[in-house]
Design a protein that fits this description.
Elements (H helix, E strand, L loop, with lengths): L21 H6 L8 E4 L2 E3 L9 E3 L2 E3 L3 E5 L4 E4 L6 E4 L16 E5 L5 E3 L2 E3 L14 E2 L5 E3 L2 E3 L2 E4 L2 E2 L2 E3 L2 E2 L3 E6 L3 E2 L3 E2 L2 E2 L4
Parallel strand pairs: 1-6, 2-7, 5-8, 6-9, 7-10, 8-11, 9-12, 10-13, 11-15, 12-16, 13-17, 14-18, 15-19, 16-20, 17-21
Antiparallel strand pairs: 3-4
């Protein structure tokens, strides 16, 4: 379990002493591939992960994010998207919040990850060509279910490389030719509106 009220209190993931951040739950040695992390209602603005996200042409690319998923996990809110928010950060000096001080929301580096039942908002990336997924940067085997992604911005698609189901994508903004709501992210039974 995760509860933002427990941030910095040394929880162990139990119902009586939950982890204080989603990243803490992911990083725990007892969290293994195939596990489900249950996230209690709250606004999750804590934690910044600086792991690199992907490799291309021998180069490593990445940017800070709130949640970096490097295990095959299901991360599910207990009370749904209206009550459970993952919040990034806009660079106040950047174009549409995109810049060197920006923080993205969710980056997925493992296969078969499921993100279920969140509002993912205010995530931003760098201005480089590899600044994708201010809201969610995924893997083609990953799934985003019953989520809202809004008020995010990136160089190439605030929601990138993830399968989208029953979500609302938008409004989001961006900078660049591929900066709309979705980039390489097939969607079904979803509302995609207000993306520039």
């Amino acid at each position: 379990y995760v509860d933002d009220d427990w941030y910095g209190k040394g929880g162990n993931g139990s119902t009586n002493a939950p982890y204080g951040s989603i990243q803490e739950a992911i990083d725990a040695e007892t969290t293994l591939d195939g596990h489900t992390i249950l996230v209690l209602p709250g606004v999750y603005t804590n934690g910044v992960n600086n792991e690199y996200h992907y490799e291309s042409g021998g180069q490593q690319y990445g940017y800070p994010c709130r949640v970096y998923v490097d295990k095959k996990l299901t991360i599910r809110s207990t009370d749904g998207r209206e009550k459970t928010h993952i919040v990034g950060y806009a660079d106040p000096t950047g174009n549409h919040g995109i810049g060197p001080n920006a923080i993205a929301c969710v980056v997925i580096a493992a296969d078969y990850v499921v993100i279920d039942g969140f509002t993912i908002r205010d995530g931003h990336t760098l201005t480089t060509a590899h600044g994708m997924g201010g809201g969610v940067y995924g893997k083609t085997s990953a799934h985003l279910i019953d989520c809202t992604v809004r008020d995010c911005a990136s160089r190439n698609g605030p929601v990138s490389y993830i399968n989208v189901h029953r979500c609302q994508i938008g409004p989001n903004n961006g900078w660049g030719s591929n900066s709309g709501g979705l980039y390489g992210a097939p969607a079904e039974n979803s509302i995609i509106v207000g993306n520039l």
